Amino acid sequence: MVIRLIAADFDETLSERLGIVLPEVLAAIRAHVARGGAFLLASGRITASIEKIAAAWDIPCHLAAANGTVIEAWPERRRLRALELAPDIVRRALALGAGRGEAHLFFDGCFHARASPEVERYSRILDVPFVHAGDLAARAAPGARSVIWRCDARETPVLRAALADAFDGEAYVTASHACLVDCNPRGAGKDRALACVQKALGIAPGETLGLGDSPNDLGLFAHAAFRGAPANAHPELKAQATFVADEPYGRGALACLARYGLL
User: How do residues 70-125 score in pLDDT, each as one tens digit?
Assistant: First the structure.
């Protein structure tokens, strides 16, 4: 067994809550890359947010932002793909999700949302600015990467199913957290992002370890023979994992890396 590529989610997979990363996790990834391995950091986060993480880590890698809507080689910031949500899709999605949660409209460098203490907190976590928008539908414009709703956890599967049924292939709908529903452009998905990077690097699924915790990470599992999940992972992930750690978050990720000889 030789794992050449680690494809991992960030929030609550590699990180603890609030985006804190244990030094041991970062050291393990850095050592893997130093040995000639490749690393894909795949997130539902906005492009600028995931770029700031990569810049702080200073590790050559690939990035997949907004659930694979934007794919980059880092640090050169060479884009392999950048998809957009058409303005009419944005408006339709917002109408379908009305009253079911607080909506956010993602662009590469900022997001638009109605100002609130929770939105301000979210902006700090992502480390990107937000623009106050009382009417998000009026902000629909070229360059939009995703519409995301912050919902009650009981509403998340309901809204996810309603959007998926309504768009039926016109957009990619997933959940990046128990309280987050994501609507991305058609053709997005972490599965397609991983397949794109594997093709670019000449790496097979049998040489790939996928790490994730939420339903949007099932795409990483789709093209990885080895699939690790921390203890906090969603049941859908645990059901498809080849190894489930006893510990949550970053400690769980470390246990997965150890299980597959990467520590």
Answer: 999 999 999 999 999 999 999 999 999 998 889 999 999 999 999 999 999 999 99
Whole-prediction pTM: 0.95
What are the residue boundaries of the structural domains of the chain, listed by start?
5-82+188-259, 87-185
CA distance 196 to 128: 27
DSSP string of the chain, one letter each residue: ----EEEE--TTTTB-GGG-B-HHHHHHHHHHHHTT-EEEEE-SS-HHHHHHHHHHHT--EEEEETTTTEEEEETTTEEEEE----HHHHHHHHHHHTTSSEEEEE-SS-EEE---HHHHHHHHHHTS-EEE-S-GGGG--TT--EEEEE--TTTHHHHHHHHHHHHTTSEEEEEEETTEEEEEETT-SHHHHHHHHHHHHT--GGGEEEE-SSGGGHHHHHT-SEEEE-TT--HHHHHH-SEE-SS-HHHHHHHHHHHTT--
Residue 253 has pLDDT above 90, yes or no: yes
Evaluate if residue 4 carries a pLDDT over 90. Answer: yes
Pull the structure tokens for residue 20. 């804190």
CATH code of domain 5-82+188-259: 3.40.50.1000
Cis bond before residue 75 (omega within 30° of 0): yes
Q: What does the pLDDT read at residue 30?
A: 96
